[in-house]
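#random but structural
TW: two for the price of one
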Amino acid sequence: MRMVKILGLSVVLVGLFLWPVLGEKVVLRGNLGTEPPTADPALATDTTSVTVTEQLFLGLTDLAEEDMSPLPELATHWEFSEDGLQITFYMRKDVHWVHCDPETGEVTQLDRVVNAHDVVYGVKRTLDPRTASDYAYVLYIIKGASDFNNADPEAENFQELMDNVGVEALDDFTVRFTLRTPAAYFLQIASMWVARPQPKWVIEEYGEAWTEPGNIVTNGPYCMKEWVHEDHMVLVKNPYWPDWDKVPGNIDEIYLTMVEEISTEFAMYLNDELDYGGVPLPEMDNVKADPVLSQQLTIRPIPCTYYYGFTTTKPPVDDPRVRRALSMAIDRKTLVEEVTKGGQIPANTFAPSMIFGNAALDPGIAPWALPEELGGWGYERALEEARKLMAEAGYPDGEGLELLLMHNVSEGHSRIAQAIQAMWLEAFPKAKITIETQEWKVYLKTIEKETPVENVPHIWRLGWCQDYPDENNWVHEVFNPVEGANRPRMSLDDPYVGDLIKRFADLTLQAQMEQDPEVRKQLYWEAEKLLCDDIAAIAPIYYYTQVTLTKPWLTRHWHDTPHFETWSIDVEARAAAIGG
């Protein structure tokens, strides 16, 4: 699923945006990096949309940033049945739905308390095939969820399938989930946007427009006041959120721009128009050497992986030899040391080291991806093997090989793509490799598995960040060809490696049901080897770090998916520094 966007300028842009007068309000100023594809929790699939929904809607649980363990949010506590197949959540009774007037910014508390029926509606709406949620598969651990999500809405038994989904309100503030197999990690799934309560009466009144300012009702710490599409969004504090006394934050308003160019974002940060921001790749060395900026720079490992995916049903990357050769010919060590420069680590697997069941940096998997100092082959040997494989596939020196590599608009992604394109052309000099870009919302539609294959690029980039720290959220939910998102379009009928893909599908499902953690680890090791090595449906490139600049007056908590209610600004320090 999910992508972290933290990817020279020698001039500072002055007066690029006219910020609202701060007055007595504490205004946080940030950049989303693009237009959010949605603010609907049932439809969100990307980090930009999730950043927005995280401020607006609460889940039954939340996750501790340190270890991703479940914390109470809408639920006060929960109970597992003896067989582990049922989880009952007991909900608090003091969280109301609220509405923000887009003209005045005034927040009104509605006479509706968030309840168990809202949770049931939200889960079933996400799963309803008419909603067309690309992330519904995350809920397939719920009994009957997969059958309902894949049903024909015109079928006679459609209502029966909806009724059979394993979520029910036992009373107004008690909701029970029935699972198809015991899964302790369901407490983490219960924190996700796709499982959050949704306002049925508003959705039925406004349809797809229900998330627009003036229509939307929410229950989180912030409400939506403005959404000027392709330009900016303004969120205001929900004064009726009952937990303000439990968090350190003091942010009254959040002004989020949608500037795609990281160089422009960096200039805005230098001009004190943003309180936090990213670093363009060409500026990384300068920032590290600058006596002021280096003190504002934070580089921290995060549970995310940057990868290239292959459309495995589209020639010539339908041949696993071509895919493996392309993966081998990426010099990951040079890429992270000379291009990204943010402390990233070369990746040979999909899941990074923080994830339960991971096999990260195990040279038994895709050793060509690792430099010798990490136990791998090193690039010279990888390149030699890549050229042999490509010749065996019928493309000696890349002759006859034509590929389209696509990424979403981003200066950072562009530099990475150009570097990898150069590596491939060095390895296969007679190949023709073209790079194209698309705006984020369009790009996501282009690479989804329902798009006709002739309209899909051979190779595409994505990043994935954990929803919860278990390999089930990685190899199963992202790539299982039967139940997962499966953007590479792996098929059990693949003429080259159909048997391996079937083995991969069986492994991730078996690991989901297995209760012995040591057995699960071994199953996931084999699944990672199949995905990244034998099948080579993806080319893992690097394990992310979060590279951010933060103004000295801003104190940040919850870095990964920001909980802005925990952030605080020293207003006096900011005023002293920038005069306002």
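TW: number two ↓
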Amino acid sequence: MHDYKLDIFNAAKDALQGLEYSDVTAADAFCDYCIPCFKFAKILRKSPAAIAVDAAAAIKIDGMKVEPLNGYLNFTVERSAFVANAFSSALGEYKPLVGKTVCIDFSSVNIAKPFHIGHLMTTVIGGALCKLYRALGATVVGINHLGDFGTQFGGLISAYKRWGDEKRLDERGLDELLELYVRYHNESEKDADIANEAREWSQKIESGDRFAVGLFDKFKSITLEQAKKVYDRLNIEFDSYLGESFYVDKVAGVESKLDAKKLLKTSDGAEIVELGDDMPPALIRRSDGASLYIARDLAAAYYRHENYAFDKCLYVVASHQALHFKQLFKVLELLGEPWASDMVHVSYGMVSVEGMALSTRRGNVLYLSDVLDAAVEKALAIIVERNPDLNDKNAVAESVGVGAVVFDALYDGRLKDKNFSLADALNFDGETGPYVQYTHARCNSVLNKADYKAGDVDYSELLDDAAYDVIKLLADFDDAVYGAAVKYEPSIVSRRLVKICQAFNRFYNADRIMCGGKTQAARLFLTARVADTLKYGLNLLLLDAPERM
């Protein structure tokens, strides 16, 4: 596919000092591409409108019209050439990241705690980023950094010994562990003996006590079995489940590196690394000898770099952990690691349901599996009402219900706090997953009724405004995928999918597809390309694309 954006960049860079390739953006209103001129005002000492007028007079590109408009420089390609170019390469052919390796740390469930709605964002953002980077040719290592180390697990063993029952644990699984966890937390606040007992069991786990480790391994197995059921429904897989406990014995190696650089200091018996006046010190080891979370994260960073030689290592973790990651990356920088700049905290806002934040300690928890079940149940009711004769209604409801939850989470920018609404997520007529899935199914219905077979296409039959608006959105879909990956923002793809659906539905209503001859063949070809793009994009966002709805 010819890169018109590169043509524009090369032709405009002399007239617009400081122009970057990314400044050339696709536009779907007044033109095909545009350059906002506002950033050049300070450099050129002119108004954006004057800059656009002068640049338009200076820039000449064969087959392209250049016009100024209100501080924007608009570029319009000769329509027939644009359409032919848009379909000159296969969907998903763009692989700019071949040879690159990206580690993505996400989801990171805590052992013996439920997979609740608060895990939704890290899980689906991380899962989508894995698919986006793989689609662009990168080697991706999906890492579930399990929370499997800490005093709370000694507390859980203490609670199990005091109030637990093996048969009840086998029958109820994670529900039983949650009740024990909540009871331990409540009782330990009133009884110091319980807290002391928890610390003793925690030390036994660390020292390898056979009974303690065996019981904890059982808790871990129950947790992962439940979590993997959710991951299967979300179309997510991991390459590594190495958790915190794996890195405990590797902290000493990190301390040796810090000591060699004279970075390790002692403060009130604790080991710290001072990070400057603008950041509190990083606490590596407490005065009682216990390693801290950041020390284990440093060990994990070294392990990942040594084993995967990553080009990027992403941490998909809530925004309230921003300080922790600033400290982590700063310590690596002070250690002189050149790859410290390749570590990225992909932060996101908090999730609530009906305005209610969630706390596992207090038992105020909404299982993600329950949310998915409720979405599927509601989706099934809608499907039965809309299409009672549909085959595989339950399978379609699963795809639509789960997809609605995921798409809703990925539709807004990730930094925005999320107040989840099941009714909004399942709206078939809004900017939602079901809307995109339904449009995909509509495309397939048209193609099936026409018994469509791919063949020669006369692109001159696709030059009217309704068809062209669709084609412009399809033409740079690979660019949208690339932007979503490198900006760590899956919403770029989800929003593009909604725009494609809106444009296609306008085309569907404006241009009669089943009209015979070359025009019908061309319009069916465009419909097929829309269907393929929607399916491809939905899959990148972890959603299925049902053929019928």
